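User: Small ask, check this?
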Amino acid sequence: MNIEVHDTAFMVAYYRAQHEQLSKDSFAKLWLRPTVKKWALSFFENVSYEDEILHCMRNRYFHDQLQEIASKNEEVLFINMGAGFSMYPYELPKNIITIEIDLPTIYAYKKQKIDMFMAEQKLPERNVLHIAGDITDPENKKQLEGFVTGFGAKKTVILIEGVFFFLTRSQIDYIMEMCRDVLKKGDLLFCVSYDDEITKTPVFKKLTTYFSEFLKSEGNPFTVLPHSYYNSASGFNLKDRFSSLELAKKLKCIDPLIAENEVLNEYFYMLQKV
């Protein structure tokens, strides 16, 4: 994984901050910086105008799912793999214990900022543990198993959001197997990816060109996955499949006539360990 803290991470936070009521992220504004609006406008012009709303839908979907899970369980262990600048713990109830796992550069930056925000009383007190690690490295599997066993929560939820696009298929396969091995029966795994049909669309070509030419991001596999990948995931049952476009239309915050092949429509998958 060769992902560093760059302007796209801040841009996604910028999106959420522009639509707090939709994204349910009132703390995304803490990550704003002067250059972000320029990057957002560049993305609008070169890739997709609708992406701002659709990224908010991703945050909204997982916020609502975690809120519902927390309401039904006394204690929840929430493991966010590749958390980036997401702020779920601070919007959700205190009965959620959160572990955020990120690459060392991202971990160091976010941990420093979170400590500063807490000292300035800009965030509520929450039980959040930040871990530096590469989720594709088998050496970290035992550590993850230790967390799940050690916390002993009645319900464990793993979220892998905004990551698979930058990994190879073999790396994704490994992560899915790792999650299957560490989760208990009834625990949940949430994943995000583009359906493979999106590769046929002009907007997807614009996206990959933007990463390669504008961001000079080399070596990314731009991995997409068919729905069947999750339908047949070993050790799991697919409990829900929803998309950013579906949620945007449900909340009436996007043109109801817009077609899926016109936007970067991410799919959200809820898998339950069997």
